[in-house]
Design brief:
With 391 residues, the protein is an alpha/beta fold. It contains 14 helices and twelve strands. Helix 6 (128-135) links the parallel strand 3 (118-123) and strand 4 (139-144). Helix 5 (101-112) runs parallel beside helix 6 (128-135), helix 5 crosses helix 10 and helix 12 (290-310) packs parallel to helix 14. The structure holds pyridoxal-5'-phosphate (PLP). Pyridoxal-5'-phosphate (PLP) binds at residues 100-102, 126, 172, 176, 204, 206, 236, 238-239, 244, 249.
């Protein structure tokens, strides 16, 4: 038997973070006191009224196939959300509900990109984007940024990266892994270039509700009709409602692209889970008060962690404006990010994600979706570690 896998599958990078994550889990299972900064999900529970809506749907027998692109009620709730939060006017037919924001991203890339196409991805990037582009047989073009520009790509950099082959520009604000947020002027400048050059924008806005210090999330689709027509927004319920395990995401796209994505999804996963969609309706249409206390808590943790990190010799950290990550620069300590994280776990029992996984080896990612008490303990240990390796 020939077990050779497809070129497409073989081209994927194995997850660099998985080995460290597996080790951290194993150490925890053995009863070791590991402090985890690796979480890519909120540490809060899904609000009760959302669970109740899904449970009621399940009890009522809402357990069959739904339309592939989602139930009309949820698509309408998403249309209303875009209107309410961003002033954008979509038709329900332009909205596709998928099995997570990740699935929405994949659908967009698969439906728009092919062999010969280039996709511009600023680094540090969410680690799945380049792999998804490779799965679509297109070519990721990485544009590096650093803490000097708060991890934001400049209009000059974007312009220089565009070629006649450029199909898509991937924007993620607020960002995973850096927590950086583009302001309106910066976003408009990038959007203007895409409009001028005829490049589609995939705007991943999944962290839109998680912004701090009075900062405002803006969508690149809002600046003009042309910006709107060049943008596909990907979004999901996971981060703002702590619904990571529910697998519910969505996107809004110009008609021809929505139609193509509908076809792709109808032949791959079909509909997202029926009763989870009812929970999604409750999330988007119901009270949003949980966010206030979550934001207050995240903000407190972020403030503490940011200050502590900058007080450690050899480490510097720009403050995040959104999401729930900090991305400190550890390059002065002289270790590659993967060695840094492996040693940190082994010697101090602290789990963090090496920046190289996000295309940025001088950094590590720390998630503050964990208790302040854990953060204090973890940063005490990180400080001890940093002082030791600095000699
Ligand atoms: C979490 C996340 C998503 C989507 O996650 P799902 O669990 O698939 O909804 C998409 N983009 C970014 C940048 C994320 O961090």
């Amino acid at each position: 038997m020939n077990y050779s896998v497809s070129r497409r599958a073989a081209a994927l990078s194995p997850s660099l973070t998985l080995a460290i994550d597996a080790k951290a889990k194993q150490m925890k299972a053995e009863g070791q006191d590991v402090v985890g900064f690796g979480a890519g999900e909120p540490d809060f529970d899904t609000p009760q009224h959302i669970k109740d809506a899904a449970a009621a749907a399940l009890a009522a027998g809402f357990t069959k196939y739904t339309p592939s692109s989602g139930i009309p009620e949820l698509r309408q709730a998403i249309v209303d959300k875009f209107k309410r939060d961003s002033g954008l006017t979509y038709k329900p037919s332009q909205v596709i509900v998928s099995c997570g924001g990740k699935h929405s991203c994949y659908n967009v890339i698969l439906a728009t990109c092919q062999e010969g196409d280039e996709v511009i991805i600023p680094s540090p990037y969410w680690l799945s984007y380049p792999e998804m582009v490779k799965l679509a047989a297109a070519t990721p073009v990485i544009v590096p940024t650093s803490d000097k520009t708060e991890f934001k790509v400049t209009p000059e950099q974007l312009r220089a990266a565009i070629t006649p082959k450029t199909k898509l520009f991937i924007l993620n604000s607020p960002s995973n892994p850096t927590g950086s947020l583009y302001n309106r002027e910066e976003l408009k400048a990038l959007g203007d270039i895409c409009v001028e050059k005829g490049v589609l924008i995939m705007s991943d806005e999944i962290y839109d509700k998680l912004v701090y210090d009075g900062a405002e999330h803006a969508s690149v689709a809002t600046f003009s009709q042309a910006h709107f027509e060049h943008t596909i927004i990907v979004h999901g319920l996971a981060k703002a409602y702590s619904m990571t395990g529910w697998r519910l995401g969505y996107l809004a796209a110009p008609d021809p692209i929505a139609k193509a994505i509908d076809a792709v999804q109808s032949h791959s996963t079909s509909n997202p889970t029926s009763f989870a969609q009812k929970g999604g309706v409750a999330a988007l249409n119901g009270p949003q008060d949980h966010l206030k206390s979550w934001l207050a808590e995240y903000s407190k943790r972020r403030g503490y962690a940011h200050q502590r990190l900058n007080s450690i010799p050899g480490i510097s950290c720009v403050n995040a404006k959104g999401a729930f990550y900090l991305f400190p620069n550890i390059s002065k300590l002289g270790l590659k990010s993967i060695d840094f994280c492996a040693k940190l776990l082994e010697e101090e029992k602290v789990a963090a994600v090496p920046g190289v996984a996000f295309g940025a080896d001088e950094y590590i990612r720390l998630s503050y979706a964990t208790s302040l008490q854990n953060i204090e303990k973890g940063l005490d240990r990180l400080e001890k570690f940093a002082k030791r390796i600095a000699g």
